[in-house]
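Inputs:
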Amino acid sequence: MPSAKFQIWRGDSHQSGELQEYPVEFQEGMVVLDVVHKIQAEQQPDLACRWNCKAGKCGSCSAEINGKPRLMCMTRMDQIDVSEPVTIEPMRSFPLMKDLVTDVSWNYKIKQKIKPFKPRKPDAPDGSWRMQQEDVERVQEFRKCIECFLCQDVCHVLREHHLHDEFIGPRFFVYTASLEMNPLDTEDRLADLKEEHGIGYCNITKCCTDVCPEHITITDNAIIPLKERVVDRFFDPLTKLFRMFA
Amino acid sequence: MSDYESFDYDVLVIGAGGAGLRAAIEAAQSGVKVGLVCKSLLGKAHTVMAEGGMAASMGNVDDRDNWKVHFADTMRGGQYLNNWRMAELHAKEAAERVHELEGWGAVFDRTPDGRILQRNFGGHRYPRLAHVGDRTGLELIRTLQDYAVHQGIEVHMEQTVVDLFKTDGRVSGAFSYDRELGRFKAFNAKAVVLATGGIGRSFAVTSNSWEYTGDGQALAFRIGASLIDMEFVQFHPTGMVWPLSVAGILVTEGVRGEGGILKNSEGRRFMFDDIPPLYKNQTADTPEEGWRYVIGDKEARRPPELLTRDHVARCIVREVKAGRGSPHGGVFLDIAWIKEKINDSEAHIKKKLPSMYHQFMQLAGLDITKEPMEVGPTTHYVMGGIRVDADSQMTDVPGLFAAGECAAGLHGANRLGGNSLSDLIVFGKRAGEYAVKFAKENGDVRFDAQEAKASGQRAVAPFERVGGENPFTIHHELQKLMQEKVGIVRVESELQEAIEELAKLRVRAENSAPNGNREYNPGWHTCLDLPNMMTVAEACAKSALERKESRGAHARADYLEKEPVFAKINHQTVEADDGSVKVVAIPTVPMREDLQEIIDWQQK
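Outputs:
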């Protein structure tokens, strides 16, 4: 059986933690989460990590593997170099709870502040609507999001500049886009995007798109179109003029 | 040490998957105060794992479909052990519940005329599953979650309930710990809805997550509710078998719905070799007819790959045992072959089955548009669970309701794919509605503070066990035992051995101990989960021992056939005087005449 040295962050909210090393053997086909579970079962039963589905569908096991934000359940051992120690750290943009578990409650608070879906009246007497597949495909891309928050973790506006009070982060631009571009929706969120949600802070470095395990093209398909809508509404001179007399 | 924070609700919902969220929404919209407790973060519950779709006879793709056909399909799939009233309500109300989701933001795949698209699935006569690619569960939970957070529901995330309270013969609340710091909360509630899911973590090869430890079933059982049908555990025919570490992860039935075929090592489509009499006149005679069905020919009948899950799982086991399996002990599931039939099959497969494509690409390094997958049965779902009243979802304990997988009745001896997500929204809504009604009619109730104190003491007891055993070791042994002796094919001697072994494991579980402290400590959590897993495992093994026949998901090597006497019996699990698990046979309720007529008419 091949072996590796795992350096896992151990610590809690009271004290600064440190990497601790665990030698471990693994089998062919194992993912990083399997190895963390093996360490938990055999060496450290109180090692904290979140997980649920182990199939890349729930977005619970987000961590930084050798410094890169990834899902532990979708990172195969044969994709990483085990000749060097493998570091497993919690997401760094959120407060630590314990070991690999972070406090992501900020994300839930942000979502609650975004104006919810508000559909137009149903198209048919049975309460249903008519939409073409090609018209919903763009929104379906955004709705693939599993809320792993890796995009939030990697976004420098949050990670380095800590603008959590002024900027909602890529996940919630994707969420806003999924509402704004839903053919049935009648709500207007552009003023919020510009003012409270800080879309202007994003300088489209596409780090979020790079780490998205669902391969959502966050920057190109969600953020840039939203930025364009904000610009059209609030900064376009012709529109401004028109609004003045409208 | 056992201090707790107190909360007061009219309705407390335990579990935040599809059923729990739907129940909480229903209750909150009637204006009462609602608390929602979930074991994980909001939106991570097991519902996200559901892939194929939710069954509702909207008739958008085939207008011959209606609730009566859906009802008859569900009953036939459950081998008529279902609670027929639940099957009736489910078939009648599913379509309205699905439309409602669209109004709350769900974005389903569309038909050419712009309605909700429906796909083929095992045991369903017509294309019936509303879906979003192969991530329908995610769509359901996200829609409900995003809607629920604006309904004034108080959500308690990462809280595990360890006890229910009972006062004056009715439920009065619950006691929980939070994962973060291990602090306790006590909830006072006029009515409680359990929506805690299944029991799959008691088995070694499973598609279920760590949460599925039978909590709701065990919590209800301990305060006097009974369980039924616990011998019926669904082994989904297609789980991944390789690599070993991902064995058990689900491969959606949608693969077969889109034309995927099952083959053995000799390249034979073995599903054509064994078609049950009950399905003979609904099943294609030739591969050619099967393909015509897949592409929507209304004259064609279903390919045998779309027979019910119990049957397909057993056929796979038979092939493997006969030495005709794939290299890693499964069989081949091939969707790539459709390139013979359609242009640009690669793009088609990626569009229809995107998660499957990525799952195999990332976990097994296999391209499903080019090569067949290796698949085998995996523990997926428990048809049995808490006994409930069909209309209200109330359990045997007044004020205690149950909905979704933790409740029993709708699915009988075998669940049809797609009937779970619709179950969640139909009966989640009903549970919420009737919980409010109960709360209003019965008024205040207080749990006994002494009981809460005792709950806290029991919860921290594992830390006081000197030299206790590693709980993960016991859990692994339980999983191995259940897989080997209470698995897909059962036999009397092994079931008896399992029951004896379970008693020993229970003693060991009572002496399991964590290291460290109460903060986010999976070892401690496992110590507290183990007794629940033991209770449901024992209920399953003892019910399986009593059912001396093979029916639906329950297969006995020593009783290969269906026995007429068991066609009219459900097994009920009750607490014996000494606190142990006892199984009694209860007669099924004769079906209402008009429903029987539907069955007879559909049988023709």
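Remarks. Chain A touches chain B through 63 residues (CB under 8 Å). DSSP finds ten helices and seven strands in chain A.
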